[in-house]
Amino acid sequence: MSDTTTTRLTRPAVPASDSRPGLSGLGQGVLEAWLQDHGQPAYRARQIRDGVWRQHAQTVADLRTLPAAVRSDLDAAFRADTIERDEVAVSDNGLTEKTLHLLGDGALIESVLMHYPARAARRTSAFASTGRGAPTAEARTEHRERHTLCISSQAGCAVGCPFCATGELGFGRDLETAEILDQVRHAARRMAVRGAHLTNVVFMGMGEPLLNLDRVLEAVVALSDPERFGLGSRHVVVSTSGVVPGIRRLTALNPQFTLAISLHAARDPLRDVLVPLNRRWPVAEVVAAARAHARITGRRVSYEYVMISGVNDTDLDADALGALLHGDLAHVNLIPMNPVAHTPWQASSPQRVAAFAARLRQAGIGATVRANRGQDAGAACGQLAADRAGEPAAPAVAHRREEIVRQSEAALRGDRSVDRLPADLQAAVDVEPAPAARGSR
Ligand code: SF4
After folding, report:
1. Long-range pairs for 391-395: beta carbons < 8 A, 24 or more residues apart
2. Does the pTM of the predicted model rise above 0.90?
3. What domain range includes position 425?
4. pLDDT of 135 over the 50 cut
5. Which of 153, 210, 241 to mutate to test the pocket of ligand 1 (most atoms within 8 A of CB)?
6. Does the beta carbon of 160 lie inside 6 Å of ligand 1?
């Protein structure tokens, strides 16, 4: 059972140990097989799914359409909710809700719910959306109200991007499918109380989704399944920092959800530092895989680009990005860096971001400047979880900053990194992606 609190969540001294799988993460057929084994009719599966996905059940006792004996057996085998407790921080006058979730083993993960009120499209955003010429028909229409949830796929992250609080935390573990989906159910439950619903789900929270690909795919299937969450595939965005075999595997599945690439630099020396995974799969390989994905699926690829003052925001960087994506079915989202402790960097100024966007558009690349959300609520990915992990020792912080400065200065001179990948990232990328999980597609 979970509850929502405004008091500070911390890791329990003795984490609970509960190996029962979460109901929301059960693949097609698993529930039916369990019901058959327990002498129950097949329609009970629909009753359970309705309870989990329409009533957002927190406990098996909430599944009131089931006989008491079935509830008892179900409770012995499964958890109705894999999240123990939530701590919600609201900011931006209620437009951003950041949630810290406590999982059964004491891991802390984050999700962010962002509300976008309905508004009429501005002419400038029409140019921004196409990157050229007159506003499109789509851009002239009103934007409907949107409620976008950003979710985590791992507790911590092995990629170690130096501008990211999750990267500094390091890797904890992969999330189970139900732990991914229960973030969505928790937000949907809060929305339902207000008579509203989620319109978009993006995998841009803690973790590298393509290093937990089987479970992320199972989660995407559940989100778009009309019998479960029922969200249109095109309203789901899966982001990656560039796990090329994972992108190829996705392409082979021909998914209709949106692929986003966390690019952050178009030049290898700099990307080696900003996204260390680049030392394994360099920019050209990542973009080639994304280009093939766009060609085969017909879906435009989003490129995310965090703007860091004096590091990756120069005209040279804009021109390199323009040349890299020239002619591609692609769109760039420019995001001023969130303030993160223990980095020597600042966000680019609004003027620099606007100039960078204009230069991209001149090169024929669509670009949108994304507003920073929830800075007063610790909006940066992993910031709340890092806060609860405690302040690292001062020498470790000083060493980290020196390393970032050393690496970025070398990169800005054009030198490629000779540094090894962090051990846990090396271990993660050495594992050949497994074939698609049975029943995940
Ligand atoms: S930005 Fe994404 S990939 Fe990079 S460390 Fe943070 S969570 Fe991991």
Report:
1. 392/342
2. no
3. 83-430
4. no
5. 241
6. yes
